[in-house]
Amino acid sequence: MSELTVPLSSWKPRFPQKEIMQAANKHRYCVLVTHRQLGKTVFVVNWLIRQALNKYHELGTRGLYCAPYLNQAINASWDYFKHYSQDVPSAFKKINEADHTIRFANGAKLMVRGADKPDSLRGTFLDWVVLDEYGTMKPNVYHEIIEPMLNERRGKALFVGTPRGQNQFYEIYKHALKEYTANPNGDYWVGVYRADETGIIHDLEEKRKNIPDNIFRQEYLCDFTAAVSNAVFPQEILDRARNNDLPFGGGERVAALDVARYGDDYNVIKICEYAGPMKWREVVTEHWGKEATTYTTGRVLQLSQKYKFNRLIVDGTGVGGGVVDQLKEAAKKFQVYEFRGEEAATNSSFVNKRAETYFALREFMEDGYVRFDDPVAFAELGTIPYSINSKGQLQIASKEEIKKETGKSPDFADACMMLAVLFKKSNAVTYRQNSVRRNNLTADSGFIF
Questions:
Q1: What are phi and psi of 30, to 5 degrees?
Q2: Contacts 24+ apart (CB under 8 A), 422-426
Q3: Position 427 confidence tier, pLDDT thresholds 50, 70, 90
Q4: E-strand spans in 28-135?
């Protein structure tokens, strides 16, 4: 059996849904930036249903609707899936309420899942996926789990959302925009639909009067910068660190390790190399899931042999303290420093060491002294907010607060932040021009922070 010869629902795409439907059918990767009340969920549900009914493969086809959290995915889409598939006779479909899946007689299967349950996403292949509010999903869920399944059959992905700062949704938007601009008939397409252009919201001016300006620009004008008016790292600073042309010069290497606290956090180690006076360039970033402290210690020791860093700073909060103790005992060829962000800052303008160090990193990046290459770190750095307390001190949201807001812990960003301590520490790094032996490196031992 190939295509189902049954009527689709009475839903008919309106502007701009018809335009988006045409693009989603033509291109492999679509990034859809929308204002509130556009009807994006209704659209993506119907797009998935139509794909499932009109495509056939002898091994069946698979479509996935994924939101940051399972409950969010169910609440947003499940009733729509059942409603808009109701014109398919019951003999030709099977709805599983427990598993939130719909199977059709042509072998197609549609699934509703959450990115907070990554194991539930794993499988052999996917033909279509909708990633709704992609910016607040766990990092790497797409690249590590979903993308390989799409590649089995050159499946299609639709990234959908309203701006929430310069996070991973902003990163995929920028990448897609670059690709689409270079080749409008290629794999990528970008659509940005502002409320003042679609004309769908009739009381838009009333909303403009009653909603704070930055929220209005974010929610209705699709403004990525409005969401981060209090960002430590504005986009121009992130772009400078991304595009900074710093050479590898064989200088000293330093590393920072952010230790996973909870089951869905990551251990992240980031290694940088000295690239000239006060200048540093990223060498590599590696990450792994939460493991026993002995595993993390062993992994770091292996990386020290491979990349030969001279100094390492570790977040000693919680389980990180155990890793610090083990590394101090085991490390023979590099120094180990402990970072505790909750400690009082050296400069009274900051509420604690965490805030002081984040703004030190900002200074390095703003002055053109750092080159980072890690896209996950850039996405997370773009979501780090600051505020001013009643004493006039600058403060940074805690990891727990950021995780609650964005759906993920800023582990990659915190690794970048801790590197600033070692950047500051190395006032004078020298090495012998005629030698490649790293044990000839010397560094100022003064700890500025």
A1: -120, 135
A2: 422/254, 422/256, 422/311, 422/313, 422/337, 423/254, 423/272, 423/278, 423/280, 423/360, 423/361, 423/364, 423/369, 423/370, 424/360, 424/448, 424/449, 425/311, 425/449, 426/252, 426/254, 426/274
A3: very low
A4: 29-34, 61-67, 93-96, 101-104, 108-114, 128-132
pTM of the predicted structure, to 2 decimals: 0.56
Contacts of 97 (CB under 8 A, 6+ apart): none
pLDDT digits (tens, 9 = 90+) for 189-215: 999 999 998 999 888 898 888 776 777
Render 154-173 in DSSP notation, one character per residue: T-EEEEEE---SSSHHHHHH
In the predicted model, what is the mean pLDDT of the chain? 86
Looking at residue 229, its pLDDT comes to 60
Confidence of residue 219 (pLDDT cuts 50, 70, 90): confident
Q: Which residue has the tokens 């059918």?
A: 25
Rounded Cα distance, 347 and 357, in Å: 10
- In this predicted structure, the answer to whether residue 372 has a pLDDT above a threshold of 90 is yes
